[in-house]
């Protein structure tokens, strides 16, 4: 099972571990479900899936506190 690291998720990982594993926002971790303990390792292969690329680039970069209508207008452009 894989998960993409968010800024909030990184805050739960101790700093020495983040430094040792070079963990960053948007990085994908692979969780080993076969172990009786929590085991996650950074994925070495980058996904070429366009959605994954977009998601990694956009995590933590949302503009301010826009309403849903404002965000939709911003993404759709002019009428």
Descriptive report:
With 79 residues, the chain is α+β, with helices and mostly antiparallel strands. It has one domain (2-76). Helices cover 37% and strands 13% of the residues. It has helices at 7-10, 15-21, 50-58, 68-76; strands at residues 2-4, 28-31, 40-42. It is elongated and about 55 Å long. 1% of the residues are buried. The mean pLDDT is 77.
Strand order of the largest sheet: 1-2-3
Average of per-residue pLDDT values: 77
What is the helix fraction of residues, given as a range? 25-40%
Radius of gyration (Å): 16 Å
- The structure class reads alpha+beta
Number of helices: 4
What is the N-to-C succession of helices and strands?
A: EHHEEHH
Kindly report the oligomeric state of this protein.
Answer: single chain
How many structural domains can be distinguished in the coordinates? 1
How much of the sequence lies in strands comes to 5-15%
Identify the overall geometry.
elongated
How many β-strands, per DSSP?
3
Low-pLDDT residue spans: none
> In this structure, how is the largest beta sheet organized?
3 strands, antiparallel
- Span from first to last CA? 41 Å
Outline of the structure:
This protein has one domain. 37% of the residues lie in helices and 13% in strands. It has helices at residues 7-10, 15-21, 50-58, 68-76; strands spanning 2-4, 28-31, 40-42.
Highlighted features:
79 residues; 4 helices; alpha+beta
SSE topology:
Elements: E1 2-4, H1 7-10, H2 15-21, E2 28-31, E3 40-42, H3 50-58, H4 68-76
Antiparallel strand pairs: 1-2, 2-3
